[in-house]
Every structure is written in structure tokens, then in C-alpha cells.
Amino acid sequence: MNIVVCVKYVPDAQSDRTFTEDNTTDRVGVDGLLSEIDEYAVEEALKIVEAGEGEVTVVTMGPEQAADAIKKALQMGADKGVHIVDDALHGSDAAATSLVLAEAVKKIGTPDLVITGMSSTDGIMSVVPAMLAERLGLPQVTFASELTVDGSTVTARRDGDTASETIVASLPALVSVTDQINEPRYPSFKGIMAAKKKPVEEWALADLGVDASLVGLDAAWTRVESFTKRPPRAKGTIVADEGDGGTQLAAFLSAQKFV
Predict the structure, then answer these.
(1) Which of 8, 53, 58, 125 could make an SS bond with 73 (beta carbons 3.0 to 4.6 A apart)?
(2) What predicted TM-score, i.e. pTM, was given to this entire model?
(3) Can you tell me the distance from the alpha carbon of 70 to that of 79, in angstroms, rounded to the nearest whole number?
(4) C-alpha span between 259 and 254 (Å, rounded)
(5) Domains of the chain
(6) Secondary structure E strands in 151-209
(7) What does the buried/exposed string (b/e) look like for 192-212 if buried means 16 or more CB atoms within 10 Å of the residue's CB?
């Protein structure tokens, strides 16, 4: 079984995230990493292939630093990677992202399964998987908490607030997974060394036949007009308890309309 996993390089949540001069997310001047939820997608693909046969190809689009996301996936055990890097991609929205990823999947071939995380940890929109499935003409099985691939079908369990649903789709299909589906492995020393020899191709928009006017900030449906940094947290008030601490606490909570 051949599986394509779409992953994203995102700013580290522990870093000082900010915007660039054109009000797009700074993905170059901050530390970044493979989106956490995408690790679950990579792990699920590896489990499926290890239970039978096939290969896992990881695809990402982004600046040069985005190669680190592919590197992490290869260290986990993926077989090869594709990095779509082009200056014209800067500022692309979800619609443009799904377009580019769809053309990349088509260029790779016809995979039996396309797997994504349910959302990226920076955008948290959860719309790209559905858009990608539509562009590829594939049935979509989203928010999977459990996944079973059997012959020509894929079966997923989707857990909601009040009930769980079982969804069955014919292959090929696109699946997005949640962080409940598995426990991603840590790259072993052997995996880290093996990743250095695995092939990674770099493709530009021209390689995919995508018109640059369809992507980037100018083609985006929405844009950030302005932003303001969060003000530093003010120091709290220290109250010396002289027997009336409880009264002062109740008065504070009441003044803030917490009670």
C-alpha cells in the first residue's frame, strides 16, 4: 500500500511567534518544527505499511526551513519526501494550499491513501483535508480516532461529544486523524542515521503546473490588516492575610464578577 502523508512546518509554540512586515506568519525568523498533530498522521501511515507492505511518502510546502518537517518524518520511518518550495507560495491561504498539495499528490502518482492531521497547530482551521479530498476526487474520512484498512476499504471511528460514529469508505481515500489515534514513536538513532540517505525531492510551482497567480498573499481570500503584540502580564496584588484574607478574596471575586 502506498500512502502519502501531508505535513506542515509550523512555528514552535514555545518560541516568540510573530508576524512579518506584510502581516503574514513569520515562518523563517522563528524556531519551527513538524506540526504535532501531523506526527500522529505519520505514525498511522507507518503502522499501516508495517502491517503489510508499501511505502510512505511525506509532502510539505513551505520555506527552506520546512525541510525539517520532512526530516523528522523520515527519521520516524517514512521512505521519502517531497518539499514544495517556491517564493510565490508566501502568504498562501487554505484554498491555495489545498491546490498545491493536490497537484503534488497527483504528480507522485495514485496513492491508496492520503493521510493528514485534522488541523495544523498554527492555523487550527481543519479545512485543508476536506478541500484536498475535493480536489483529488477522493472520499474523505475526517477526524479519525481509530483506523482500519482492510482490502479495498478504510474504516474509521470518529468520536464526538455525545457519540461515536463508524465511517467506511472505499480506497483510494483521504483520512485526517486526531491526536487520539496512536502514540507517535520517537526517532531512534538507527532511524536518524537512515534518514540521511532517504530521497527528498524539491519541487517548484512550475514542476506542478500551478500558475503563481493562484497562490500567495495576493490570491488569498483573507488577510491580516494589522496586529498588536499581547501586553506583558501585570504583576498580581499580594494580600497579607491578617485574618481577613477570605473576606478580601471574596470581595475581589465579586468585584471581578466571578461570583
Answers:
(1) 58
(2) 0.86
(3) 10
(4) 5
(5) 2-219 (3.40.50.620)
(6) 153-159, 164-170, 173-177, 200-203
(7) eeebeebeebebebeebebee
